Amino acid sequence: MYFDTDTYRLIRHSLEKPVYKEKLRVRSYQPAGPDDPVFVELKKKYKSVVYKRRLVLPEAQVMKCFEHGKPLPIHSQIGEEIAYFWDYYETLHPTVFLTYEREAYYALDGSDFRVTFDENILYREEDISLGSKIYGTPILGENQTLMEIKTSGGIPLWMSETLTKNTLFKTSFSKYGTAYQQMMDEKVQRGVQYA
């Protein structure tokens, strides 16, 4: 669940490819009921390096705080950063629900090297709830998969060789950004005016 302003300020700024950008989302790895733990994530990107800060709280507590514009009940550096973010952007509210099926692999050598494969990536602007059914509009073409390589260090030689052999090259892709662009395209086609 991604949060943004009434004018989609965060995602519009992100799509301009600035040196620094940030997003706020609430994530669950399964349908979440009121008492289930969810992750409140502040995702920042500076000079192509991603920093993810997160807190874990019950779903109902998070949504109640955000709905009433109150700080989360955790007094920590991350809690303060999220509170500042919320105050700074003022009109934040849930704007897009994204869901996908993920296969994740990680290195067994103790490094932080990971590879994920996301399929069936869907988005929607209504019924934005972590407890709702899985449905929405696809953002990938049929039989397409999003592969992400995640590491704080270099990519292992065996992976570099595999990518080269299969002519796979680094590209930028944002699930929320792609969903936003599709939403705006659809509104233009319907003749809807937007900011």
Give me some keywords for this one.
195 residues, alpha+beta, 8 strands, globular
Chart the SSEs and their pairings.
Layout: E1 2-4, H1 9-15, E2 20-27, E3 37-46, E4 49-58, H2 59-67, H3 77-89, E5 93-106, E6 114-124, E7 137-138, E8 146-150, H4 157-165, H5 175-190
Antiparallel strand pairs: 1-2, 1-5, 2-3, 3-4, 5-6, 6-7, 6-8
Average pLDDT confidence is 92
- Low-pLDDT parts are none
Count of DSSP H/I helices: 5
What would you call the quaternary organization?
single chain
- Indicate the radius of gyration in whole angstroms: 18 Å
Report how far apart the termini are: 22 Å
Number of strands: 8
Q: Can you summarize the main beta sheet?
A: 8 strands, antiparallel
Shape verdict: globular
> What structural class do you assign from the helix and strand content?
alpha+beta
Order of helices and strands: EHEEEHHEEEEHH
Estimate the strand proportion: 25-35%
- How helix-rich are the residues, as a percent range? 25-40%
Explain how this protein is built.
The chain is an alpha+beta fold and 195 residues long. Helix content is 28%, strand content 32%. The chain contains five helices and eight strands. Strands 1, 2, 3, 4, 5, 6, 7 and 8 form an eight-stranded antiparallel β-sheet that branches. The protein is globular. It starts with a strand and ends in a 5-residue tail after the last helix. The model has no long low-confidence stretch (mean pLDDT 92).
Give a summary of the structure in a few sentences:
The chain has 195 residues and is α+β, with helices and mostly antiparallel strands. It has helices at 9-15, 59-67, 77-89, 157-165, 175-190; strands spanning 2-4, 20-27, 37-46, 49-58, 93-106, 114-124, 137-138, 146-150.
